[in-house]
Amino acid sequence: MPTSLHDVSAPAKLNLFLHVTGRRADGYHLLQSVFTLIDWADTLHFETRAHRQHDGGLSREDLTTPLPADDLVLRAARALQAATGHAGGAHIAIAKHIPAQAGLGGGSSDAASTLLALNRLWKLKLSLEQLAAIGLTLGADVPYFLHSAHAKQATAWVEGVGERITPLPANLEPARLLPGHALLVVKPDAGLETAAIFRDPALKRDSFAATITGFAADPGVGSASEEKPNDVEHNRDRGAQSFRKFLLEDSRNDLQPVAQRLCPGVTQALEWLNSLGLSGRMTGSGSAVFAWVAPEMHVRARFSSTAIAVPDQMQSRWCRSLDVHPLAHWA
Ligand SMILES: C[C@@](CO)(OP(=O)(O)O)[C@H](O)COP(=O)(O)OP(=O)(O)OC[C@H]1O[C@@H](n2ccc(N)nc2=O)[C@H](O)[C@@H]1O
Ligand SMILES: Nc1ncnc2c1ncn2[C@@H]1O[C@H](COP(=O)(O)OP(=O)(O)O)[C@@H](O)[C@H]1O
Predict the structure, then answer these.
(1) CATH class of 185-319
(2) Measured between alpha carbons, how far is 29 from 160 in angstroms, rounded to an integer?
(3) pTM of the predicted protein model
(4) Would you say the ipTM is above 0.90?
(5) Arithmetic mean of pLDDT, 36-46
């Protein structure tokens, strides 16, 4: 019976676009977004503790950056104990690599990987739906990370406050839409607090709500079922092209104008990308921004002797979007 799990990955996410389409009665904002995972991850290690002590038998060790005392990893473990009555504990070590207050979802991903790891280690056998319900109490992005591990597909169309998740059809996956492209992710030193953006009176809250089915051109839906195989391919291709255009040109991050006002580093990072001929966009509630980089430029930039110089007060990283969550083999 395994009593430990080592090198458990918790990858960062990017919001390829983010529209605010309304507001719930409790004040939370309704969003539409495409989430994808990237190869920038925290690493967690879990060891079971046999007996609950005064602290619930839970302890955490920060291997890199110090985290808040009651961080999302411990809160996820405690929420799982509370939901199941499990009497065992765990020691969790975490090597933090994803920058905080970046819109990269590091804390939420740590929480999701913790729920998946402890569900396994403690043999709780909770379903995806049960884990996602616990996850949503910890953060709106946690259900997405859980679903991406179960769907065996990283990219998803996400709605509500983050609880309505539809895996993207294969023809709309970023790796197919932008083959060979890399992502240049830039994080200004200054971070941004999510709550400050959502409470700003200037935030645009009335974006038009799109539908993913319109892009998918699924041959099994509506009139498409009458199509011949060639038409099906043609329609899929057309759907993929219009989705690509939507992602790159016709969508935006509605949180970005407020973020740029609150954090000059966001504008500086976007301007730097612009000076390289790249069109950048913020992820989530910032402050990190990203740009898709065509294969030619990616190769040139990585291997030329005059490597791209990153301005002071920001860090940059070349990333790839992941086809599958690193823990997908557990599903
Ligand atoms: C914006 C997104 C997009 O993926 O992620 P990040 O970029 O922060 O990672 C998420 O919706 C972040 O959701 P979540 O992780 O729950 O945000 P929190 O920091 O807990 O939210 C702080 C506060 O922002 C407001 N808030 C948050 C989410 C939302 N859909 N509407 C809101 O109005 C609420 O007042 C909430 O109390
Ligand atoms: N394990 C964790 N990793 C990072 N931040 C955490 C963690 N647990 C709690 N937090 C808190 O949550 C906040 C938001 O998490 P973060 O990973 O920065 O997400 P995002 O940048 O996507 O909003 C952080 O500023 C930090 O105070």
Answers:
(1) alpha beta
(2) 8
(3) 0.94
(4) yes
(5) 98
